[in-house]
Amino acid sequence: MSIKLFSKNNCMQCKMTKRFLTQNQISFEEINIDIQPEAIDWLKENGFQTVPVVTSDVATIVGFRPDQLKLLA
């Protein structure tokens, strides 16, 4: 399963999401929009206005949602 975490610097929910995924040994690719600003266009085109956004083959999760993130394990 391909999991992507869209995040940015100085974002507490992003840090918490990243920590949760790491602690639960869920592999993911992090896309930091401060480092890769071109990803902002994709987020906007898909209706997202905030980060973190976690995308996978089975779900899209906005914000720090440990209840939903567990389903990716």
Automatic annotation (TrEMBL):
One of its GO terms (molecular function) is electron transfer activity. GO terms for biological process: cell redox homeostasis. InterPro entries: GlrX_NrdH, Glutaredoxin, Grx-like_ET, Thioredoxin-like_sf. Keywords: Disulfide bond, Electron transport, Redox-active center, Transport. Pfam families: Glutaredoxin (PF00462). Signal peptide: none annotated. Transmembrane segments: none annotated. Residues 3-55 form the Glutaredoxin domain. CDD domains: NrdH (cd02976). Electron transport system for the ribonucleotide reductase system NrdEF. Belongs to the glutaredoxin family. This is Glutaredoxin-like protein NrdH.
